[in-house]
Design goal:
Blueprint lengths: L9 E9 L13 H4 L8 H17 L5 E8 L7 H18 L8 E6 L5 H15 L4 E8 L7 H18 L3 E5 L2 H6 L2 H10 L4 E5 L7 H4 L3 H16 L6 E2 L1 H12 L10 H15 E4 L5 E7 L1 E4 L17 H19 L11 H7 L1 H11 L13 H18 L5
Parallel strand pairs: 1-2, 1-8, 2-3, 3-4, 4-5, 5-6, 6-7
Antiparallel strand pairs: 8-9, 9-10
Helix pairs in contact: 2-3, 3-4, 4-5, 10-13, 10-15, 11-12, 11-13
Bound molecules: iron/sulfur cluster.
Length: about 400
């Protein structure tokens, strides 16, 4: 079956300029040493080049419905207000170059853990807000360390900062890095309640195994899968009206691939040759050194970076972004196909969905690190259980509507 070509309407960009963070999330993609800095990790020259390449790329991707630019990975509040105001200006230039139809939902995001003295953090946010105008929205993307969820003192101070940020910027998004440590102290019910109590509408769950954090992310897959399924069930049931990002991503991919819903597994090769290049053109990340990375969204963002045992697409100094992607695609396709040619993936009915969403990266980490393996259906991790439930529900909905037998 040929994968259906659906042009993505959104351009998602991430620039990894800051690694500094006082937090210690066990599921963070950064190593402790990388976080122990106090300056931006991306040099001004690489930041300039990134923005100029991305403006050119955004303009070439038209027509677009939305363009979103995230400055990640760690705590930008540690770098200061002037820096964040400057990032907003740079991100706005990229959005304007893409000329998206839906300007209201095209925004610049910056990551922060909102850790610090509340009066100081609030004053900084007020200063930033007073200097950025209203043309392009700036949204704080707050990263929560799940181990703090039960700390009453921290919770109150934190809520004060979140509510102020929401009042100033209109929206604040919450994300959390899942690890074995965090799921042991934070149940899905607690996280949903925490998000609701603190004014968040959407929670992005990041589960991003790396070669370094594998013992903390891949060692208890059955438990991790159960946690994710429970969280998904709460979101589906409309509990506290919290939504999450991984279900839409998996649904969208299944929808794009299983066009007839006749139970025939989609072809891995057509996914790799048709869907993946389109995904990569519209979902890209530039690391602090200027390497271009394809950004997939399995459970939150995960990339082809060496920390996941994957190869980047080249350096942005070498060529325009589309050229780098074009040149690297045969290698990328071979790598994804090779990952799915082994173990239980070789005969799995969901291998195309895993290739399209980015679960293949977690598979690669599980094999290289030797941590994990032994998930449902002999899956190396959490993918099979999640995809299976979502695919079956989609199939049932289609049957109800008489779209399939
Ligand atoms: S669901 Fe699991 S076994 Fe199947 S292809 Fe994905 S990672 Fe491999």
């Amino acid at each position: 079956m040929k994968a259906v070509q659906k042009r993505a309407a959104e351009l998602q960009i991430q620039i990894d300029d800051v690694y500094a963070c006082l937090g210690q999330c066990a599921g963070c993609v950064l190593a402790a040493d990388e976080r122990r800095v106090s300056n931006p990790d991306m040099s001004p020259a690489i930041l300039d080049l990134s923005v100029s390449r991305l403006k050119e790329h955004a303009a070439a991707m038209a027509p677009l419905k939305r363009v979103n630019v995230t400055f990640g990975i760690a705590d930008h509040i540690l770098i200061g207000a002037d820096y964040i105001v400057d990032l907003h200006r740079r991100g706005s230039e990229i959005i304007k170059a893409g000329n998206p139809e839906d300007r209201q939902h095209s925004a610049v995001f910056f990551t922060t853990s909102l850790v610090g003295k509340p009066s100081k953090v609030i004053a900084m946010m007020q200063d930033i807000r007073s200097r950025i105008g209203d043309e392009v929205q700036l949204i704080p993307l707050v990263v929560l360390d799940g181990r703090w969820i039960e700390e009453a003192k921290f919770g109150l101070l934190w809520k004060e900062m979140v509510l102020e940020a929401k009042a100033l910027f209109g929206k604040v998004d919450l994300s959390t890095n899942l690890s074995v440590d965090s799921i042991n102290v934070m149940s899905p019910v607690q996280l949903v309640k925490f998000a609701k109590d603190n004014g968040f509408d959407e929670v992005t769950i990041n589960w991003a195994p790396t070669l370094l954090n594998a013992p903390k992310t891949l060692s208890e897959n059955a438990k991790m899968a159960k946690w994710l399924l429970e969280f998904d069930a709460l979101a589906q049931a409309g509990v506290e009206q919290i939504t999450t990002s991984f279900r839409p991503v998996i649904e969208r991919t299944i929808d794009a691939l299983m066009c007839t819903y006749d139970g025939t597994p989609p072809s891995l090769m057509s996914t790799v040759t048709d869907l993946v290049p389109e995904t990569i053109l519209k979902s890209i990340e530039i690391d602090h050194l200027g390497h271009l990375l394809p950004k997939f969204e399995a459970i939150g963002d995960i990339t082809h970076a060496d920390r996941h045992g994957m190869q980047n697409l080249g350096h942005i100094a070498e060529a325009p972004i589309a050229t780098l992607i074009d040149q690297a695609m045969p290698k990328v396709a071979r790598k994804i196909a090779a990952i799915h040619a082994k173990g239980s993936c070789a005969t799995c009915k969901y291998s195309a969905v895993c290739a399209g969403t980015g679960f293949h990266i977690a598979t690669n980490v599980a094999r290289l690190s030797g941590v994990g393996l032994g998930g449902q259906g002999n899956c190396p991790h959490v993918a099979f259980g999640l995809i299976d439930r979502i695919a079956e529900e989609m199939m049932a909905r289609h049957q109800e509507r008489g779209l399939v037998a």
